[in-house]
Please model this.
Amino acid sequence: MTIQRFKLFLLAVLLATMGLTGQALAELNPVAMVTQAQGNVEYSKDGEKWKAVTRNKLLSEGEQLRSAADGSAKVINQITGTVQNMGASTVIKITANGIEKVSGTLSEPDKSATDLLESLDKRFAKAQRYTTVRRSVDKEKGKNVKLDTIKEISLSPKYPELAWSNLGAEFTYELIIGDKPIPVPSASGDMVRYKVAGLTPGKHDYLVRVLQNGQEVYTPKKPSTINWVDGEALKPVEKGMKDLQALAPGDDFMMGAFLEDRGFTVAAMDMYRKYFKDNPGDVDMRPMLIKTYHDLNLKDLQKNEAVQYQKMLSEQE
Model:
């Protein structure tokens, strides 16, 4: 047994202990993603039973996609990062190497999209690590107060918000950027958000102290980093966003993936949340939202979303 086969065997055993099926195992390695579906577009796992594509859809090896006379879609090859336009009355199948036309019209791969997004299959596989509901997350909070924040994050005038876990209504916070302390009041909900302003382009140390009744109860040992993106550094980001808007206009999920790839984790979370609010039945893409919760150390939100994801997976079986 080769090392690669052994790794796959171990992964299959792990998934079995989690109660996931072989179908879920296949979905860990998507080959293509369908986006911007218009008209009647359907996918099939076996070529016999077909289901409508109504939102972004990940496809794995062996699956097929077809369009009716009024149908069209964009298909992203996760392996190469290129995009192809699927025309009307077309059938394609997904192979280990990517996308293969069976009949109809499929454009040549568009390589201009390669630099817009990191290969989504790698990021999706990484995101799957955070979908398990771990017992440690369920433990009751102890008396010792501790607050973890994201270690490095990109912010800009358009996306200026930091976010961290809300420890409770009895706590307030002191955000320190460089040597400047900023009071942050208590908040409701699962997270605290604060809009940063007035920074010069480049990296800045920051940390969040926790206060109770005006007294410091927790200060992290090491600062985290804000990368403030503005001026010349912002131009390639703006160009990438403009190119993505042309490729996938109005696609909140794709914009979230773009922003996450460039370190704008709070902005990415917001885009993913908006996408799932508009597409509550989408199971395939949810690990990406769960990953942003993990990266931001929003443990309660990560747990709740992971529970919802596992529930939706089980209902699909």
Notes: Residues 299-316 form the longest helix (18 residues). The chain has a mean pLDDT of 85.
